[in-house]
Amino acid sequence: MLRLELRKEPSRAMRYATPVLAVLLTILAGGIMFALMGKDPVEALHVFFISPLSDLFSITELMVKASPLILIAVGLSFGFRAGVWNIGAEGQFTVGALTGGVVALIFYNVPGIWLLPMMTIAGVLGGMAWAAIPAFLRTRYNANEILVSLMLTYVAILLLSVLVHGPLRDPEGLNFPESRMFHDSATLPILIAGTRANIGFVVAILVAITAWIVMARHVIGFQVRVMGEAPLAARFSGFLESRIVWLCLMISGGLAGMAGLFEAAGSVGQLVPMLPVGYGFTAIIVAFLGRLNPIGIVAAGLVMAVTYIGGEAAQIELGLPSAVTGVFQGMLLFFLLGIDVLVHYQIKSRRPSAVAAKS
Amino acid sequence: MDLTILILQGIIVAATPLLFAAIGELVVEKSGVLNLGVEGMMIVGAIAGFAMTIESGSHLLGLVAAATAGAATAAIFAVLTQFLMSNQVATGLALTIFGLGVSALWGQGYSGQSTAPLARLHIPVISDLPIVGPLLFSHDILVYLSVALVVGVAWFLNRTRAGLILRAVGESHSSAHAIGYPVVKVRFLALLFGGACAGLGGAYLSLVQTPLWVEDMTAGRGWIALAIVVFATWKPGRAFAGAYLFGGVTVLQLHAQGFGVGIDAQYLSMLPYVTTVVVLVIISRDKARVSLNAPACLGKPFYASS
């Protein structure tokens, strides 16, 4: 019999090895899944995982998909380290797109270099405001932030829908539920001509680097880590729990709001009801896959972007349903969480005495 | 009068899936495990029940498939959290993401199809009574099963030895383990039960409420069920009240939409979610009451060192 034995200290090697192992296991399980669906697993995996990396256009598309994931996941990583579970990033993303987008629509005929920064600030503030609700309700009334932030996601998506159907609808359009298109100085500059890769990716990388410095070197990062790993110690040393809750929700809400605005002002270019496509949820997986470490999250965001682009390619070339992407993402997180046990435990063969003691 | 009965019947139909999911999760949480994957287990149950009913033509087989699929989904969570000591919050979220993906994949061929809704029981004479008949004695079997489950779970938790052990495991897994109770086994079984209940709740959506298969058709009901457990302060009777409260809000906003009260439909659709937040705040405000009723080991991983 095998049994798990607690390591004296967490294994550093395993901490870095498990995400890679999880990706490999997911690819293996994916191959089995494709075979069960009657597709050639080698061909399917090639379309899914290799084709997104094979030409420049696909690589720039990876950047488009990875940017919102990285931005949101970096924000979430602060909270997840401190035990503050904001899982309503999708809602904060939506509200950020809405508030930032409204600024663009107010100045729909006024171009200016100041417009994009103003939209970004509005988007960040919108995301923060939406995240402030669970922060306030948790710190003041002890209400569970998981459930509150999630419920607000549904509210935010309905809010976007009602506004785009009504007051924000393009007055010169054909009555479709969509806003005016943002003009040139209200859309993100393109990095590489002829592609959709925009400046949002650069911002996401800069945000990740800043977050890494804050987490590793700044007292805020220290407090966040202590709160998550030793809540009692945090309390005794006088960190205010409510301050950390607020801080984590403001960081994650603000970055999710920024991601939402970047999506609206980037690849979409207007407000539409279908703007939220689940980045806020996928970012949760990205945060864990990246070990809640901002630099790791950049890598994880790119890996996750592959599953999106690969999923689209598989849909077109192999006729596989788009839902395959969701299955892949779920499996990836399962494998990661499962083999993460090796970070804190090691596998030992059971000694006879332990069997006798009926462990 | 007819309208009142229609609304009340609607509330029962809206409340039943919530009640199934909530009562299952209540047992899980009483054993000290927080499974946030209710939404994922419900949606897998919804497609499993629907697909099986279409393929076999039998609602009974559909319900069995739904419960089995829900339990199987829960088993993934159980293996990860109980044997591999993974973080329960993260694993629950993974279960929801995975469940939504798997169900969408499985349901590809079934969207747009329809099946006959689960038959309503008709008891001669009693079902024909005015008011009482349509209100209490002419529902489908699952409505009665959900009520029986509440009574059964309340009895199990408070009046049986096995229920006492389950609560002991939830209050202090170390003490329970020291006495010799099989902590992991108890939690595993509780999780399977919770998964089966969530699966039935999902099947109620796809076989009675609509009866259709639509991607993401649970629309947050699994999360509302989690809120109902907190609302109920982990007491089965109150979970019943909670499920019917949320069912009531859902149905009333639907009728308000039907009457065209001059408010955009989207605002009315927000009501169940906003109600959940408000109710959570009202219940959680009293910190002492929540901590008095919440299982002390809720969400904490258990590792038997000896």
From TrEMBL, chain A:
Keywords for the protein's UniProt record, in alphabetical order: Cell membrane, Membrane, Transmembrane, Transmembrane helix
Membrane topology reported for the UniProt record: Multi-pass membrane protein
Record field: transmembrane: 16-36, 56-80, 87-108, 114-137, 146-168, 188-215, 244-262, 268-288, 295-311, 323-343
Major subcellular site: membrane
Pfam families in UniProt: BPD_transp_2
Cellular compartments per GO CC: plasma membrane
CDD domains: TM_PBP1_transp_TpRbsC_like
Cell location: Cell membrane
Protein name: Branched-chain amino acid transport system / permease component
Organism from which the protein derives: Oceanibacterium hippocampi
Lineage: Bacteria, Pseudomonadati, Pseudomonadota, Alphaproteobacteria, Sneathiellales
Automatic annotation (TrEMBL), chain B:
Classification via InterPro entries: ABC_transp_permease
Any one GO cellular component localisation term in the record: plasma membrane
Sorted UniProt keywords: Cell membrane, Membrane, Transmembrane, Transmembrane helix
Short name of one Pfam family: BPD_transp_2
Keyword Ribosomal protein: no
GO molecular function: transmembrane transporter activity
Record's subcellular location: Cell membrane
Transmembrane regions listed in the UniProt entry: 6-28, 33-54, 60-80, 92-111, 131-157, 188-206, 218-234, 241-259, 265-283
Keyword hit for Transmembrane: yes
Membrane topology classification: Multi-pass membrane protein
Major location (coarse): membrane
Protein name, entry field: Branched-chain amino acid transport system / permease component
Source organism of the structure: Oceanibacterium hippocampi
Lineage of the species this protein comes from: Bacteria, Pseudomonadati, Pseudomonadota, Alphaproteobacteria, Sneathiellales
